Amino acid sequence: MNKPMIGLLAGALLGVIDGATAWFTPDVRSQMMGILIGSTVKGALVGVAAGFFARKVGSMWMGIAFGLLLGLLFAYLIAAMPDPANPGKHYYVEIMVPGSIVGAIVGFITQYYPRPTTSAASVR
User: Fold this and answer.
1) How far apart are CA 71 and CA 100, in angstroms?
2) What global pTM score does this model have?
3) What does the chain look like in DSSP terms, one character per residue?
């Protein structure tokens, strides 16, 4: 499996987990389906971008930083939208902290996997 595909799968999976944590914010429980879909798409987009970045750049730290910054950017774009139920309310910390962590983890995963395989023929 190539790096963008790994990023897509890891980002989508972690996005679902990230979105599911919104359950702990009682004010937004009525919007759970939209949050889950949005977090999944956000995670998948960050994962694909991190996968393409990992193809070009082989640095673990740069991959983690790229994923973290991209996750932070996408999370900011979501957090900047007001809560439909309470238009004056924004959830910057609640959205941006987990979004950046998901981005950093996806950046790590795309740099680390797939590991190059060495066969007996290539060692000789």
Assistant:
1) 5
2) 0.86
3) --HHHHHHHHHHHHHHHHHHGGGGSGGGGGGHHHHHHHHHHHHHHHHHHHHHHHHH---HHHHHHHHHHHHHHHHHHHHTSPPSSSTT---HHHHHHHHHHHHHHHHHHHHH-SPPP--HHHH-
- Per residue of the chain (124 residues), what is the pLDDT tens digit? 899 999 999 999 999 999 999 898 888 888 899 999 999 999 999 999 999 999 999 899 999 999 999 999 999 999 898 877 777 888 889 899 999 999 999 999 999 988 766 665 555 5
Within a domain: residue 58?
A: yes
Domain count, the chain: 1
Domain membership of residue 108 as a residue range: 3-114
In a domain, 119, yes or no: no
Evaluate whether residue 56 is within a structural domain: yes
Residue 15 lies in a domain: yes
